[in-house]
Amino acid sequence: MSPETSTVHDASDPLHDVMRMGQLGFGVAATLLARFGLTLQRVADDEPIPGSYWGDAEAGIIGHTVYARDDTPVHSLLHEAGHLIVLPPERRAAVHTDATDSIEEEDATCYLQIVLADHLPGVGRARLMADMDAWGYTFRLGSTRAWFEHDASDARQWLLDHRRPILDAANAA
What we know:
Blueprint: H1 21-24, H2 26-34, E1 39-42, E2 60-62, E3 65-68, H3 74-86, H4 89-92, H5 103-117, H6 124-135, H7 144-150, H8 153-172
């Protein structure tokens, strides 16, 4: 059973005051994603996000591209980018909207999105984990932080076993 599930939220709901791409800026995120061979495509505010699994403001993925708007939560951008990053390059090209084919990949994606947050100015893992909790991610131990610090060793090990250069690059990004 996966420690994580996402729930869809109304992006305008004030109870979910999470950091959005408009606050972060697209340039710094695009630079980070480019280190992993990904492109960040900004979507106009009034347009639907291509490749978005959850819809609304959630980021989307198609091939090597991550799509986001100003109202896209940073955690969503990093999560969807993480899905593409954990895949071997030959599998990325076929991705459209849904990239996960196993619980282990989903867990590794959650782990990686937290690590990547440390490489975005003004975000960091503490803010990202709080935003994940506010958005409705659920974990066995009750919070993202508890999962990451006490129950994510299998996700980290999966990254080391399957995609070690990615975790090394994420730590050095």
